[in-house]
DNA sequence: CTAATTTAGTAAAACGTTTTACTAAATTCC
DNA sequence: GGAATTTAGTAAAACGTTTTACTAAATTAG
């Protein structure tokens, strides 16, 4: 049943002109190439009439451009990434690009596999939230000349374009906010990883804690233990034994994970503890209590990532100077970071 | 700097065999085509050595297959769709396919634009959550022989493959659950649309209400009024003036929207009202009160959608009989659907 | 020992574009 | 009025595969 789409050749035959002429006209080079008004009109009308659109695969083969970008994230179902994805999609489509999303599960093996699949010259550029161990693969992509922009984190010793936020400041400010609200035993729950988005958040927390002369209470969970028994035990222990009065979660899925646990062991805890989480979310707003969160500027992140990408794409082979953006996050102050005495007033 | 990737031609030159031979070997047709063991080995080793991978664009041009599928949803940042997307991605990559995600905003114009962009034979198949008015475009895709599977909803008068859930039963059961828990003035808040996923939910609600001899209280919000003043006013009016004791939301973003309003006008309302929402979500679990939700079987939906897609793809041009699946949703019973007296016990 | 068959490949066309290099006719220049 | 230039195009190569149709040499059949 599959009926053949018309090609330039068909148009050429129908109108009795060469395919070259048609190609020139279609690419807006008609005047430049001194094609007569009548011929241009004739071609344009016919193209309109038969509803011809060029075969993009053939175009890609010839030009080497696919107009497809890859956006590789940890997990596309995570709201933080899904929202960036949505914003990126909008920008890309406006410029005639499509976006392939893929999730690397913050897993090196999977990341490598995905990069391998895509680097087969199917793709014009990569926007990557890298997992910890794919420095080499990123380096290779860059070396063979494929545009790459990193997001959320980067490799200290690899010069790449990137867009991140000032995690240190954001974490410090958030911790200070808790301190200012008279919390004194503030725990920091984070993921065990060498990646700088996390280590910077840890440093921000530590700095604020040290400055205030408070006790540092830190739980670093291995990624694999999340939603597993091991993780549950660690969190339970921390929450119950340390007599803490506040918790700062370094990322949204940790918050989610911990809340489920809290819900089970002692629902009131969520009111009694001061709580701040990294990464904001519609649900933190409507939760009871509403959750104070470090909100990353999603739209702006997406815009900067794409700006850089398009700059690289436009520059073709000329190497452009590195663009490295650090944006500011904002603290969305809500009920969960108030001291208990005042918390239930609202 | 862009260094050229090796092509079959380069291999041919290096090994002094024809490109035909190499192509046969690479496609596993070596034995069949009587290529000698030694030559096969030689080619395979060299390919391994230089790390050659075929240019997919050229393959696509020649074979007409791109190994790319499109998954078009309302909004990829909505957790329901993001989760299906994640599941689809996994299945697709396992079979060597990639997935382009795009958001149509439940908007016909945008849907048409997206279909136009993709139907230029870049894409092997479409999985679509259709907006209300693109019946014709879907029909056209099918007519020109591109595989299409619809999800979440379908067009009553257009025979297509689809995967949906039994919205009528799910909504009826949810409403009955509220009734069984002694709620008597149960409102149904939904989107004004002719699409059957929504009308079926409405019918399910109505049936249960009628069966119980209760009063039907319905608010149908136009899609555009969500997160707008108009929508806020409508919801406020309903919540405050009607003396209702329970609400059933027909979709997750309505719940979110209403919760923000409730939070502002009267935070206690969230405890006083019986609440059920369509579409489950991690946050409903940890919310205070936890929210009773109709959970769609995300994984199963994704699996069925892809099963159908691969069946169509495998069948090539032979028309296969329509596959239309209706799956069951499950009611996740939590605190929000308990009567106030019992609600705060937990 | 010749004809038929099998083995082990290869040449070339095709997919649908873009682009470089060419040309024949018309026009301009001096 | 002949050379130079401009106009209005076109032919053909190239992008990197897959696949059909072919072939020369080796083997088998009778």
TrEMBL record, chains A, B:
SUPFAM superfamilies: lambda repressor-like DNA-binding domains (SSF47413), Periplasmic binding protein-like I (SSF53822)
Domain spans labelled HTH lacI-type: 6-63
PROSITE patterns in UniProt: HTH_LACI_2
A Pfam family it matches: Peripla_BP_1
CDD domains to which the protein is assigned, alphabetical: HTH_LacI
Superkingdom as given in the UniProt entry: Bacteria
Entry keyword set: DNA-binding, Transcription, Transcription regulation
Gene Ontology molecular function: any one: transcription cis-regulatory region binding
SMART domains xref list: HTH_LACI (SM00354)
Protein name in the entry: LacI family transcriptional regulator
Organism from which the protein derives: Leeuwenhoekiella aequorea
